[in-house]
Amino acid sequence: MATYATPGVYYERADSDNAGVSPLRTDIAGFVGMAARGPLHTPLPVQSWRQFQAYFGDCIGGGYLAYAVRAFFENGGRRAWIVRIAADAASSAGLDLADAAAVTAWRIQAISPGVWGNGLSVALRATHRLQTIMDPQHSTPDYAQVTRVAGFVRGTHVRIPVKPGMAMYRMVAAVDSANNRLYWVDPDPRGRTSIQQSLTGLDPNSTPLLESVEYTVLVFDGTRLLNSYEDLSLLPDHPRYGPRVLAPLSTPPPNPRDWKLPDAPPPVCITEQRTPSQIDALVPLAEMDAATFLSGGLDGLSQLTVRDFIGETVDAMDDDATRQDKTRGLSALVPISEVALLAIPDIHIQPEQPPTYQPLPRCVPNPCLPQPPPANAVTPILTPDLPPRFNDAQVYQVQAAMVQQCETLRDRFALLDPPYDCVSDPRLGVAAVRAWRKRFDSPFAALYFPWARVVDPLFLPGVRPRDIPPSGHVAGYCASTDLTIGVHKAPANGALSWIQDLTSTIDAATHGLLNDEQIDVLRAMPGRGLRIYGARTLSNDPDWLYINVRRLLSMVAKTLRQAVRWAVFEPNNIATRTKLHLAITSFLLTLWQRGALAGKTPRAAFYVICNEDNNPPALRDNGELIIEVGIAPAIPFEFVVLRVGRVDNEFDVTDTDQAGAAA
């Protein structure tokens, strides 16, 4: 440690400890599908089912996405990335707001595309929250001498009456609170803009009342008030500028790990339609007391294609427009590094229109309560688009793209659902799903059979169920297992929630047949509920037979890859190698202590080599560092055999592990 003699302040470098290694989360799922609303082809993270409803709406007859996400959270999931898809025909409902000169100033539109926006109505009211009296005799064309300036800020839109029925409008460029002055032209030349205008032509003997001009936007779902947005300004310099306050949904940052959305988005957003010269004119908006319905919203599902599900590979030479057009559906999840599970249940969609119920009698409102503004348009009838049914070739194309992404990135795992025909035709039995399984050979995917049957929220409680793909339930259970025990635990033999039945009843003999072909089965266990009773991948390599082994290796590789980044450009000497060896050994030792690795001792469970043996001088001179890591993952007990035999006049019960037979 340095010693000091002269009093003073000295600088010392004190780097934080970068050598520690902590496991990364493996419970985060990525879903791609169709929803009632929400941004298109943009991944957004949700933390709960209620937050999903706020951003993407409730269950719809034309998609399984909402059902799968609800199943994910009901079974223990805590965070999921959602990508809503639609064809290019999708559009947002909107309404143009004109100013007093009949120029379109703002466009209010639904926060996301879809026919849901056609059910929103909007009213606009002008308010004058701030008032002050002007003294023209002590004012100049560049500023106004007023009685008070409290509340006025740069960008405040001000109405100045000239005579009855006529007024001029100016923007406050600066505020002098010491002298009670509102400047129309900024006294600092560096703050002047084209919108700032001098004020002339006032009667010096008058005392005009200056009023701020702001707007309140009322948003209704039909006639039910959803939100009220007050003090919105027409001018970009104001902190409450309308298009800034009600801006479109933000996109994820470049490093989106742990990035969170607000609990709920506003139902509408505002976009500026005026040119800079029209903004400089300072013409106020025309009020709209009667609520007017938005129009033009389309779901864009009838023209849906496989390309909308999987997108295209982005080329480094693509421009921004081409890159955005290619980034659709599944490809939008590529940069989201924290996704560990993939599911696309909507490729199996069997669309159906939601039920229509006779509306309840209209209640007479209490005349003593505030009344909603009258609507100046007939309430529209919302008829959502329905997507097409996809054939087996299209289903395989999407699932093959899922597997390809997992194999390329090697940090996520695909949960595959069998096609609808495999679970709906009793004449085929399990032959169809066995044939479907033969299409895949990958350790990064698993196939689950049969489908789940849940109570359909679109109908009255208990009226009818709906059959949905099981990937949402499986993803939720995997997430719950990862959070409570660890990724090394096989995601099986746990009871499922929010599930009433299965589309097929699997007996023991059929289960054995499917298990041998590595099809993971959901079964109704007497007295134990509905459970996942399989944990095998779709790989024909016996080394990658189990899901937990593949996912554990992916987690370890990803964790170490990120944990050793600090070593780049560090000296390639024994000190750096020792720090790396110690950090990785400590991490693997923790995994062994948690039961993730096999072996009675750490030496039997893993090894780490980072020394001069695998880093010879020629390699070090080339600026390279080799770290060799080997681990022995724990294999799950898949078969437990109880051998009961008679010994003299006693019974002898032996619990024997037959895990080896599973391979």
From TrEMBL:
Domain Tail sheath protein C-terminal intervals: 540-644
Pfam families found in the cross-reference section: Phage_sheath_1, Phage_sheath_1C
Ranges in a coiled coil: none
Ranges where the Tail sheath protein subtilisin-like domain occurs: 431-538
Protein family (similarity comment): Belongs to the myoviridae tail sheath protein family.
Domain of life of the native organism: Bacteria
Designated name of the protein: Tail sheath protein C-terminal domain-containing protein
